[in-house]
Amino acid sequence: MTLTLLEGALLLFVLGCALGAALLRDTLASVMSFAAYSLGVSILWLILQAPDVGLTEAAVGAGIMTILLLVALANTVTPNADRLLESINPRTLVLVGGFVLVMGATVPALPAIGDPTAPVVGGEVTQYYLDNAYKQTDVKNAVTAVLAAYRGFDTLGEAVVVFAAGVAALSVLRREVFA
Amino acid sequence: MTPLQLDLLTTHYNYYAVVLLLGIGLYMLVESANLVKKVIGMNVFQTGIFLFFITLAYRTGGNPPVITDGGGPYVSPLPHVLILTAIVVGVSLTAVALALIVRIYSEYGTLDEETLEQLYYD
């Protein structure tokens, strides 16, 4: 796939929002920037033909996550907004720059975007799911078929994680009555 | 920039975005003094990995993996499933982290990492 104008603009928007979330000193501004970031990412999923992931990202990433962050902010403090931007620590910047260079050096080894012979797209696992999902599960959406049927235990594990997170959040937030 | 690298940028652009997002997320995790911003950084880092997976699932001219007669070719459904699970797990993680943050604030009255360290060692 060649880079379209829409996708290029969206990638720049997403990266800009991430930078904004990182550098804005006011936590509320940072949260808002992160919400815009999630929305941009969910549109990116649509462009990459992943509507299920896009829907989940828009509802959960941009929706629930922002609400959780805002509720957390409402119950705590925001730092003094004496400056608009954070000051940048050169030592951390060098560390992160090194990490980015090392990760970036691995990119040429990856298959080109959209290459039909790439291991994931052209692999036999993908082909098996696409060939058999409808026949074996009667579900037309292959993502739902894999999620609920082939990898059902995975989804059960996910439900366990959500339950554990709920229990953990409640037990952490419980106030001691006889403190 | 040499032609070879320019060529890579037009065929691997999403992967470079992944690398940059990982970098921004890591910077926020390490450098932000405010705990809420650390959690946001963790989420940016996560989304970078999501972009890596969804890009790997993409094929040129592919349709969403909803099986219809003669509807192919389709993008790979498996990375989509893994990322759907990961998004929900990520939100659970964020919820627990934010609950801990609210609790830390009610105990110590600050969310600043350095102030918290001083309070801890005093």
UniProtKB/TrEMBL annotation, chain A:
Gene3D superfamilies: NADH-ubiquinone/plastoquinone oxidoreductase chain 6, subunit NuoJ
Cellular localisation: Cell membrane
Membrane topology: Multi-pass membrane protein
Main location: membrane
Cell membrane keyword on record: yes
MrpA C-terminal/MbhD domain sequence ranges: 12-75
Species annotation: Haloarcula pellucida
Pfam families recorded: MbhD, MbhE
Domain MrpA C-terminal/MbhE as annotated: residue spans: 123-175
Ranges that cross the membrane: 6-24, 31-48, 60-81, 93-113, 156-173
GO CC annotation, single: plasma membrane
InterPro entries on file: CPA3_Na-H_Antiporter_A, MrpA_C/MbhD, MrpA_C/MbhE, Nuo/plastoQ_OxRdtase_6_NuoJ
Organism domain of life: Archaea
The entry's keywords: Cell membrane, Membrane, Transmembrane, Transmembrane helix, Transport
Lineage, broadest ranks: Archaea, Methanobacteriati, Methanobacteriota, Stenosarchaea group, Halobacteria
Keyword presence, Transmembrane: yes
Name recorded for this polypeptide: Cation:proton antiporter
UniProtKB/TrEMBL annotation, chain B:
InterPro entries in UniProt: CPA3_antiporter_subunitC, NUOK/Mnh_C1-like
Presence of the UniProt keyword Membrane in the record: yes
Pfam families from the UniProt entry: Oxidored_q2
Protein's UniProt keywords contain Ribosomal protein: no
TM regions (residue ranges): 12-30, 42-61, 81-102
Main location, first listed in the record: membrane
Keywords: Membrane, Transmembrane, Transmembrane helix
Membrane topology type: Multi-pass membrane protein
Localization annotation: Membrane
GO cellular component: membrane
The name this protein goes by in its record: Cation:proton antiporter
Organism per entry: Haloarcula pellucida
